[in-house]
Amino acid sequence: MGGTMASPQAPVVPAAPEKPKPPRRTRLPEAVRRRRRGENIAGFLFMSPWLAGFLILTAGPMAASLYFAFTDYNLFDAPKWIGLDNFTEMFGDPRWRKSVEVTLWYVVVGTPLKLAAALGVALLLNQKRRGQAFYRAAFYAPSLIGASVSIAVVWKAIFSDDAIVDRTQRAIFGMDVGGWTGDPQWIIYSLIALTVWQFGAPMVIFLAGLKQVPRELYEAAEVDGAGTWRRFWNITLPMISPVLFFNVLLETIHSFQIFASAYIVGGGAGGNACGPADGSLVYTCYLYVQGFENSRMGLASAMAWMLLLAVALVTAVLFWSQKRWVHYEEGSR
């Protein structure tokens, strides 16, 4: 054969595309850079009062209390490092365990009752009626004055022996407990009644949430024959569940921090600073007694950090549980 076979050609490999070069950073004019630098300095100057207050009044005392929690400190002598002795003594103290029990009872009973009263009044105020502005202001007023010392003094007088509450329950129910503030079993309920009376703040938040529920949902439910309870359970609660979660979280934290009302209402009753037979010995009240009456600031600091950890744990559990019962609008998370 005269011809020769041609050798197969190697496949052509396309060249890799060149990586785009990053754009060059243009240097800003000197005037622009000076203006931005001045804006940053002005921003830090406006923030400096808050930063100074945070460092001096919040971060500094927190760091100091964390150190004091591991020391023997009595406010007069230099702190002495003792390690975990404060926590060991705290866990073995029967009064500390009593304060935990009283506080948990106050939180578990008082918070749901307060939120139930707030939601109930908010549902009533959400209906169109004359004088709504007056009723809202009247129901909100106890939240503004309820935490004052004067109201706690009046509350103590109302629930004392042979006062108006004692006479009313004796005349209507035939009960004679000798005044709630003088009875170790009843004094905590006077504090719960005080916190329920201050339902104005969560009521306003509930009312704002109720205003956002579309009326079309209720109209459609009425057409389908749903009653009042069914509409409340299947429409109102799911629609205001983010607001309900916010109120539960806020009021739970506030309940753990109760001090002024418990100290004033229970002060002097039975010769005890926190109620007769420690009936109103909430956690912060016992912390105050250890820190300022017994001059054991190291132990009080350890108690304060345990309270912080407990509140953080409860907050984490609430945030974890919201996935099961809090319903957000699509894309609003």
From TrEMBL:
Organism: Streptomyces rectiviolaceus
InterPro entries named in the record: ABC_transporter_permease, MetI-like, MetI-like_sf
Record field: transmembrane: 43-70, 104-125, 137-158, 186-210, 302-320
Key word Transport present: yes
Gene3D superfamilies: MetI-like
Domain ABC transmembrane type-1 span(s) in chain numbering: 100-318
UniProt xrefs under SUPFAM superfamilies: MetI-like (SSF161098)
Skewed-composition ranges (Low complexity): 1-16
Region (Disordered): 1-32
Compartments, record wording: Cell membrane
Listed PROSITE patterns: ABC_TM1
UniProt record similarity statement: Belongs to the binding-protein-dependent transport system permease family.
Pfam families membership: BPD_transp_1
Membrane topology: Multi-pass membrane protein
Designated name of the protein: Sugar ABC transporter permease
Lineage of origin: Bacteria, Bacillati, Actinomycetota, Actinomycetes, Kitasatosporales
Keywords: Cell membrane, Membrane, Transmembrane, Transmembrane helix, Transport
